[in-house]
Amino acid sequence: MDEEKIIGENGTVSVEDQVIFQYVSDEVLKFDGVSRLVGGITESFAKNIFGRDTDVQGFKVNRDGSEISIDIHLIAYYGVNIPQMAFDIQNSVKEVVEAYTGLSVSAINIGVEGIDKRKQQ
Known about the structure:
Elements: E1 3-8, E2 11-16, H1 17-28, E3 34-37, H2 41-50, E4 59-64, E5 67-77, H3 82-101, E6 104-116
Parallel strand pairs: 5-6
Antiparallel strand pairs: 1-2, 3-5, 4-5
Helix pairs in contact: 1-3
């Protein structure tokens, strides 16, 4: 598992991808327009061809020095304003990840992989 090390005056703090995934997942699923998270095409390819299966579907963290970028793949509900929802998710996730991990987020890429109908209750 990848991790980011933050060097401070009292020592080093490591933030693993799993921590970032949890913050991102919790934040994304708060949005009413999000049905669920799904693996992207690359993740599906790796699982089907190479037999790899990741614990966390729908996310990828890319590290470039002290900055990270996050790819999020999701299914939205029918009728949701997708551009506005994606913009709101980007802002919210960036704020939470930077506030709670101390990492700098350079980009949050959102892929809407499909549309679901809301279940009647």
